[in-house]
Specification:
The structure holds four protein chains of four kinds.
Chain B (H helix, E strand, L loop, with lengths): L19 H11 L1 H19 L6 H26 L7 H18 L4 H25 L4 H20 L9 H8 L11 H17 L1 H11 L1 H6 L4 H26 L11 H11 L11 H20 L4 H39 L1
Helix pairs in contact in B: 1-14, 2-13, 3-8, 3-9, 3-11, 3-12, 3-13, 4-5, 4-6, 4-11, 5-6, 5-11, 7-11, 8-9, 12-13, 12-14
Chain C lengths: L1 H25 L32 E5 L6 H16 L3 E4 L7 H13 L4 E4 L8 H9 L3 E5 L10 E4 L3 H16 L3 E7 L5 H14 L7 E8 L4 H14 L3 E6 L2 H12 L8 E4 L3 H9 L5 E4 L2 H17 L9 E3 L5 E3 L5 E3 L4 E4 L9
Parallel strand pairs in C: 1-2, 1-3, 3-4, 4-5, 5-13, 6-7, 6-8, 8-9
Antiparallel strand pairs in C: 10-14, 11-12
Helix pairs in contact in C: 2-10, 3-4, 5-6, 7-8
Chain D lengths: L12 E10 L2 E11 L4 E6 L5 H9 L6 E6 L2 E3 L4 H6 L2 E4 L11 H6 L5 E2 L3 E2 L1 H15 L14 H14 L4 E5 L7 H16 L3 E5 L3 H7 L2 E6 L2 E7 L5 H9 L17 E10 L3 E9 L3 E6 L5 H9 L6 E6 L2 E2 L5 H6 L2 E4 L3 H5 L6 H6 L14 H14 L16 H13 L5 E5 L7 H16 L3 E5 L3 H7 L2 E6 L2 E7 L5 H8 L7
Parallel strand pairs in D: 3-10, 3-11, 6-9, 9-10, 15-20, 15-21, 18-19, 19-20
Antiparallel strand pairs in D: 1-2, 1-4, 4-5, 7-8, 11-12, 13-14, 13-16, 16-17, 21-22
Helix pairs in contact in D: 4-5, 13-14
Classes of the chains: A mainly alpha, B mainly alpha, C alpha/beta, D alpha/beta.
Chain lengths: 353, 351, 360, 506
């Protein structure tokens, strides 16, 4: 990847220097904000149109359902953002979620008195362990994460199947205090969603305001340069996979709390939605740009589409097709935007030779 | 961009003259074909000796029939991966082609022959959509085909929705599973072999094949050498789609059932087989022979383990581990070799 | 790369040309002139000897829709009990995800292994037919349970209950719960599940009866036997149909998901839910008042009966012809009905009074 | 080691007996280097002499197999780039290493961003600091804009700002001027000098001797990974340095032989591409070498790419031997008899992972096919013929081209194109980054080719090369052709005058 656009008119005349007062927001950041804003608008439009057709869509119950429905996807999408930003991808999150969810159920089954915070910690730790397997393999093999996590997608799921061997864990097997976690509301907002919000805020803040967070962008933007500027790329990428695994673990525990019924198939195929949410949310698939907030919005948008289709009584078979079309539209739009921005930046490149 | 296309740092080729590591990876990959063929032979031998009912004609027939879709799709996939791209939408294209075949048969009144041709053309059109997004708009094929994976699968449910079409004429459905008279080799192996030979020759012994390797390694340099990178990639996606159309027909007839979920998840197996066959996910490296051996190895292992009553869940783990091993092992071995080499280098200096 | 383009053009053109020629020349195979003459019906060859003893050492394999489905784990275990009783060899194999194509490869494997009886629940009524016929030709007896294939592909279908029985039962349950009038909806499994669709069709017929004239079926939704999807669909139903009084979900996954949604929503107790579910999954919702009553046959008995039917076939007690009778251990005597169907019996209705007596 | 030049204070950085091998290849063999504070020190050597490896050792990217580093008399161990940076060693690589998605300010301060409470990054302070740095350098770059889209010169400036920002005591510059124009080089040198005055040491690597002698106090010469000499520039002549580098005498530049001018072979008419170049017309005759001169970014390479069809153009036409060549199609351009040796060998000229023979025959892959089949034997024969003619030194033809030295790589590129027997050869920076010995070979070759009737369009940033080789010089400025100079009128002044757009009209 070259930084220079072919044939940029570097010396194009008449470039006013940037007005220092107006520049405080920063061009780079403003570009991101545009993306998040457009997602919000899309979300608003979708909710608006659906509500017009069916006013119950805006009822308290419905909004609660919506928030509840998107919480798990939001958490996964945020974890995926961390990974994609470094120009990697984690396809095994669905399998990790399934494995952790089943492990949580098994824990309650074998030790009925376990307080739920313990289960939470155990679940997150198991997820982190799976993430460490991913990260370790990637570090050892120095091959694309895509391939490794495709492999662990099978492997973790296989372990899950093997372990469950057709058993199912039911709501009755888990303590009510744990299950309440999945359904309880605080001031009408589901606890699950609050957890997701905390995760989004924490990761978003970390990515934006901490040195190590910025280094993740650097790695994704130009891995070779990152190595030369002293960033410990291997360590960071490993950490990112552990984090993604831990968040998938968290999502797995919450999944158990919310759905109550657990078998080995929990979360199958979820990875596609997660990647879709991140990409729709403006996280560039080639790393280096995107935010946790955007990815979370992407996840909310995808969930809302699912619910709207059900409410609008559109053939549910369309849902997957819509998700696919949305991914294509999102990356297409990104491309268009990038080209326009590049064209605009070309004009700014000069500094009066 | 070839290097950027599939994530992760490009292979850590040292720029130093003689780049020891690069050379040893190359040396190893050069023989990866041989490794995989040897593994295949060993697997077949061991399975024949230890697994009851493995070395029978009937089993060979089942094995080959089960492998047909995988083998067919692996052919264009090999070419695509060698150019540094990937097509994850193949299984969804198979599904959509299958349901469209069912829908046409159900409601159009066209002859089945014509429907088959239309389905292949349709597959080509689906591939062309992928190609357009990837080459026309310059988008990463990974993202595009994840999108079309969902889109095409969704559409295939839209096409047939509730139903499965199953009343295909019996002589057609029987024809695809028939054996070559006097053998236990399915007739369908013949077109597969023909296609494999065609793909092999194109890849290894034509100007176009050279261009594929060139653009997989460095598409900018390929462009400067007069290779139409975009156009070639576009047509590869089209070919991939058309082959998926063929597989859609085969699938529908073999299982006498056109339904939306046909071939779900097949893309992962195809990618596994291609990587197992020694094709580099970064593009620019790999051979068709290795891929064919990889497909067979995957099939033989699954079949033998199934016959040996190994749990299906263990099979899932095996598939995943094979994929990981096929990418981790070459690197690990190269590392060890490089280390040994360095030690050998150092010793005379010390003494 | 103009050669590429040229090559492709030639290819496409010749393909199209070939197609035209083919279809013009002899009309080709169209739907109208093709005769669907697959199989020769139910082969009730030979004669049944009701007094024959069940052979010892029969190799019996269970092939469920998918290994990781708890419902099938229970029914296969029932089958295992039966096989142990008559001293056969039991085996359970299956794909990890429900798909017809992988079932085919397992059927092939089983016939390779020389199984005496293959007992399967079909993911697709047609797709596994070819393989089953081959297995039959290789000497295996074929029994289907839970989900049937085309009748000519198996000897016996062990049906949990008649479709009419289910439809009657479900409509009656919901009618009782909503007080005989109001809007109802059905939350089904996948849209192409054979048994589901048969039941739904019969429920619609059932609803035309005068005693149900005030009940209106507004829609059928599909939760794909996926927990989350079923959950979302329930949510969608309640939003789309504000006057909805009741939901029938004749699938274990669907009814559990719907119950979970209702129990956590404002509709709890107001919108009635019934369907087919397992007591273990539903216990909590029956106790917390979300669900009044639901029904199910015993999946373990279903597997048990299927195993005995298979053994009876393999031992020559029955041939699968209508009227054959056989003994199924603790369950007593069964008669083969039309098209080789054996029926387990009416479903059990579970409510808060009896649910604690059942553990499955 | 000889003179202990400027001042007699203790040396700032000392490398002693540094050895580094990659596999079987020894890249550095017992190299010595001493840097004093306030000194600009040149490091020269042919390609493959080990300069880049030495840079990477200093940068902490490679750990030496043996030998020692001493900073301020203290032994220095570099576990990675971060350690080097902490020790005050800044490296500006040949190719800028920026993060395109991040803002310019972040690029400068990556890993060292100013912090406020809770260890958060203080973005405002960071932007302010960046702006202050640019002021010090006398340039205007918006610190909040993304690095993507910056010109090469601006990227270098960002790199320099980065180096100054952490008060580097040792600044290593690996061929920083390769992509810069004269004005930009001057500014860079001004910065380097001011850093030296501030007490830092600058290690400067370049192939351009005038720059070396202009900037540096001392020169260290490497050959084949070994230290050859370190001397004061004042005591040296260019010839002595070159002799040290190659170990023998070479005629520094090979002037073009006169050739008989034939018909016009390349005719470019009113070529325009919006925002890149405008209304470019020129022609080249058989036997003629025409140089396209100008500053970097003037649009020279872009014109070449458009003529060859790699890039599209909006208006105008290109004719080869009187027949129009379709736009935007390199394949057709090749068929018409054109060949382009691009400026970036690694990215555009060669496929590094492929073998020498595949690279050498890639452009001829169709011509070598029989009945559509391309067999390895045909390629090998062809490759053998051309590599022999150009005296490519390779262990074997099947070896990856990445294992060759820069000069030999360039010869492979030339072999690839000469094998197509072109009538028009466009060659962009024919000798960039190749050593002195090979340089003159390339010049001789170009001269011979012109003698055989080829039309050659040469783009070069090295004025001696332009003046020595060209029959005519075309000068571009800001996307326009501003001046055409016949050989007799061309000299450094007239070309630079036109290239900087000072009062010149064609």
């Amino acid at each position: 990847m070259s930084l220079t656009d072919a044939g940029a008119p570097e010396r194009a005349a008449g470039n006013a220097p940037p007005d220092p007062d107006r520049q405080r927001r920063g061009l780079t950041e403003r570009l991101l904000a545009v993306r998040e804003l457009s997602l919000l608008i899309a979300l608003g439009l979708l909710v608006g149109v659906t509500a017009l057709r069916n006013d119950r869509f805006l009822s308290g119950q419905s909004i609660k359902d919506l928030l509840l429905g998107c919480a798990i996807l939001v958490i996964l999408a945020v974890g995926q953002t961390l990974v994609i930003v470094t120009r990697n991808v984690d396809l095994s999150v669905g399998s990790i979620l399934g494995l952790v969810a089943f492990a949580t159920g098994s824990l309650f089954l074998s030790a009925p008195g376990t307080p739920w915070p313990v289960a939470l910690v155990v679940g997150v730790a198991l997820g982190a362990l799976c993430g460490a397997v991913n990260g370790g393999l990637i570090a050892v093999a120095r091959v694309p994460a895509l391939v490794i996590t495709l492999g662990t997608l099978y492997a973790f799921r296989g372990v899950d199947y093997y372990w469950a061997s057709g058993r199912q864990i039911n709501a009755a097997d888990m303590p009510p205090s744990f299950l309440r976690l999945g359904n309880q509301t605080v001031l009408g907002v589901p606890v699950l969603f609050l957890v997701a919000l905390v995760v989004v805020a924490a990761v978003g803040f970390y990515l934006r305001s901490y040195r190590s967070g910025r280094e993740l962008y650097a790695i994704g933007s130009e891995p070779a340069a990152a190595r030369l500027s002293g960033i410990r790329v291997g360590r960071r990428v490993f950490a990112v996979f552990v984090a993604s695994g831990a968040l998938a673990g968290l999502a797995g525990v919450l999944y158990a709390a919310r759905f109550g019924t657990l078998d080995a198939a929990a979360g199958t195929g979820l990875e596609l939605q997660v990647v879709a949410a991140a990409v729709v949310g403006g996280v560039a698939i080639f790393g280096g740009s995107g935010s946790a907030y955007g990815a979370a919005l992407g996840a909310v948008l995808l969930t809302t589409i699912g619910s709207s289709l059900a409410v609008l009584r559109i053939d549910p078979f369309w849902q997957q097709a819509v998700v696919g079309a949305l991914i294509l539209a999102a990356i297409g739009l990104d491309r268009l935007l990038a080209l326009r921005v590049a064209a605009r930046l070309r004009g700014r490149s000069a500094h009066g030779a | 961009m070839a290097h950027d296309s599939l994530y992760a740092a490009p292979p850590t080729a040292e720029a130093e003259p003689g780049g020891g590591r690069l050379a040893s990876v190359r040396g190893l990959l050069g023989s990866w074909d041989a490794v995989i063929v040897a593994a295949l032979v060993v697997a077949v031998l061991v399975a024949s000796l230890t697994v009851e009912n493995f070395a029978t004609g009937r089993n060979a027939q089942f094995l080959l029939l089960d492998l047909m879709p995988l083998a067919l799709i692996a052919l264009p996939m090999t070419l695509i991966v060698i150019t540094g791209e990937i097509d994850l939408s193949v299984a969804s294209m198979v599904g959509l082609c299958s349901t469209l075949m069912g829908q046409l048969w159900l409601s159009s009144g066209l002859s089945l022959e014509l429907i088959c041709v239309l389905v292949v053309l349709l597959g080509a059109v689906l591939g062309a959509v992928n190609g357009l997004f990837v080459t026309g708009f310059g988008l990463p094929s990974l993202a595009v085909t994840i999108g079309t994976l969902a889109l095409y699968r969704g559409l295939s449910f839209v096409v047939l929705g509730d139903q499965a079409v199953a009343d295909f004429p019996a002589d057609w459905t029987a024809a695809v599973v028939r054996n070559i008279p006097g053998t236990s080799v399915p007739v369908m192996v013949v077109p597969l072999l023909v296609l494999a030979v065609i793909f092999g020759v194109v890849l290894h012994a034509t100007a176009a094949g050279r261009a594929l390797y060139a653009m997989g390694n460095n598409d900018q340099a390929a462009t400067f050498t007069g290779v139409s990178v975009a156009r070639t990639k576009f047509w590869l996606f089209v070919v991939s789609g058309a082959v998926c159309g063929l597989v859609g027909i085969f699938w529908t007839l073999r299982y006498a059932s056109a339904r939306g979920d046909n071939a779900t998840g097949l893309e992962l197996t195809v990618v596994t087989a291609v990587l197992l066959g020694g094709v580099s996910i970064f593009g620019g490296r790999g051979a068709l022979l290795g891929v064919v051996a990889g497909v067979l190895l995957l099939g033989v292992l699954r079949n033998a383990l199934q016959l040996a009553d190994v749990d299906a869940n263990a099979l899932t783990i095996v598939t995943g581990s094979l994929l990981i091993a096929s990418v981790v092992l070459p690197n690990a071995v190269a590392d060890i070799r490089a280390r040994l080499h360095r030690r050998r280098q150092r010793q005379p200096v010390a003494s | 790369m103009s050669a590429y383009r040229r090559g492709l053009r030639v290819g496409v053109t010749s393909l199209a040309l070939a197609a035209l020629l083919l279809s013009a020349a002899c009309g080709g195979t169209t739907r109208d002139n093709s005769t669907d003459d697959a199989g020769a019906g139910n082969q009730a060859s030979g004669t049944a000897n009701p007094d024959a003893a069940i052979k010892a050492g029969l190799k019996i394999a269970f092939l469920p829709k998918a290994l990781n489905n708890p419902y099938f784990t229970v029914s296969d275990n029932g089958g295992k009990d039966a096989v142990t009783e008559f001293k056969g060899e039991f085996k359970e194999v299956g794909p990890s995800e429900a798909s017809a194509s992988s079932q085919v490869s397992y059927i092939n494997t089983l016939s390779q292994q020389g199984m005496d009886v293959i007992i399967t629940s079909a993911n697709d009524p047609n797709a596994i037919c070819g393989a089953l016929n081959q297995a039959k030709a290789a000497g295996a007896k074929i029994v289907t349970f839970d989900s049937d294939t085309k009748p000519e592909c198996r000897q016996i279908f062990v049906n949990q209950v008649t479709a009419e029985g289910i439809a009657e039962n479900q409509v009656k349950l919901i009618s009782q719960q909503i007080g005989g009038e109001g809007e109802i909806a059905i939350l089904s499994a996948t849209a192409n599940a054979t048994n589901q669709n048969a039941w739904i069709a019969l429920m619609k017929t059932e609803l035309t009866k005068p005693e149900y004239s005030k009940i209106k079926l507004v829609t059928v939704a599909y939760g794909n036997d996926d927990d989350q999807k079923s959950f979302q669909e329930t949510q969608g139903l309640l939003q789309s149909y504000p006057n909805l009084k009741g939901i029938i979900s004749p699938t274990t996954v669907g009814v559990a998901a719907a119950a979970r949604y209702l129990s956590g929503s404002q509709y709890k107790g107001k919108v009635k839910l019934t369907g087919l579910g397992t007591p273990n999954q539903m216990r909590q919702y029956v106790k917390d008042g979300t669900v009044d009553a639901f029904a199910l046959w015993s999946p373990a008995d279903l597997g048990y009966l299927a195993a005995y039917a298979g053994a009876a076939l393999a031992s020559g007690q029955i041939t699968g012809a209508e009227g054959d009778t056989f003994k199924a251990g603790k369950l007593g005597e069964f008669t083969v009905g039309k098209d080789g169907v054996v029926i387990l019996g009416p479903p059990t209705v579970f409510d808060k009074n009896n649910i604690d007596q059942f553990q499955f | 080691m000889t003179a202990d030049a400027p001042g007699t204070q203790a040396p700032l950085l000392v490398l002693d007996g540094v050895t580094k091998s990659f596999g079987a290849v020894a890249a550095l063999r017992g190299v010595h280097l001493t840097l004093h504070s306030g000194e600009a020190h040149a490091l020269v050597g042919e390609n493959g002499a080990g300069k880049s490896t030495l840079v990477k050792v200093l940068a902490g990217a490679h750990a030496p197999d043996s030998g020692s580093l001493t900073l301020d008399g203290q032994p220095l161990r570099l576990g990675g780039p971060a350690d080097a940076r902490a020790a005050g060693i800044a490296v500006i690589y040949q190719e800028p290493t920026l993060f395109p998605d991040l803002s310019v300010a972040e690029n400068i301060f990556m890993g060292r961003q100013p912090l406020r409470g809770l260890r958060r990054i203080d973005t405002a302070a960071m932007n302010r600091d960046a702006e202050r740095l640019f002021q010090r350098l006398g340039v205007r770059i918006d610190p909040t804009r993304p690095a993507r889209g910056l010109s090469i010169a601006d990227q270098q400036l960002v790199e320099i700002a980065k180096a100054i920002s952490f008060d580097a005591r040792v600044l290593v510059m690996d061929e920083p001027t390769a992509a810069l124009s004269g004005v930009e080089v001057e500014r860079l040198f001004a910065v380097a000098r001011s850093l030296c005055e501030g007490g830092a040491a600058v290690l400067f690597i370049s192939h351009r001797f005038n720059e070396v002698f202009d900037l540096c106090h001392r020169v260290t010469v490497l050959r084949d990974g070994a230290w050859v000499s370190s001397d004061d520039t004042a005591d040296l002549t260019v010839d002595e340095v070159v002799r040290g580098m190659v170990g023998r005498d070479v005629s520094s530049l090979y002037p073009k032989q006169d050739a008989e001018l034939r018909d016009t072979l390349l005719d470019v008419r009113r070529l325009s591409r919006a925002g890149v170049f405008t209304d470019v017309s020129f022609s080249v005759r058989g036997g003629e070498i025409v140089a396209l001169a100008g500053l970097v970014g003037a649009g020279r390479s872009e014109v070449a790419r458009a003529v060859f069809g790699v890039d599209r153009y909006d208006a105008g036409e290109v004719l080869v031997a009187g027949r129009a060549v379709p736009a935007g199609n390199p394949g057709r351009a090749i068929a018409a008899g054109m060949a382009l040796v691009p400026e970036d060998r690694r990215q555009q000229g060669l496929i590094m992972e492929l073998s020498v023979e595949r690279n050498a025959t890639l452009a001829r892959r169709r011509a070598l096919s029989r009945l559509g089949l391309l067999l390895g034997a045909a390629e090998r024969a062809e490759a053998r013929q051309w590599t022999r003619r150009l005296q490519v030194k390779a262990s074997r033809l099947g070896a990856p081209v990445a294992t060759l030295s820069g000069g030999n790589q360039q010869k492979v590129v030339l072999a690839k194109w000469l094998a197509t027997e072109p009538r028009v050869l466009i060659i962009d920076e024919p000798t960039r980054g190749i050593d002195v010995g090979t340089k003159s070979e390339v010049h001789r070759l170009l001269s011979e080719l012109a003698g055989q009737g080829l039309a050659i369009l040469m783009i070069s940033s090295e004025l001696p090369e332009v003046l020595g080789m060209a029959d005519r010089v075309l000068v571009m400025h800001e996307g326009r052709l501003v001046r055409e100079l016949p050989r007799a009128e061309a000299d450094e002044t007239s070309i630079m005058f036109a290239a900087t757009g000072q009062g010149a009209t064609a």
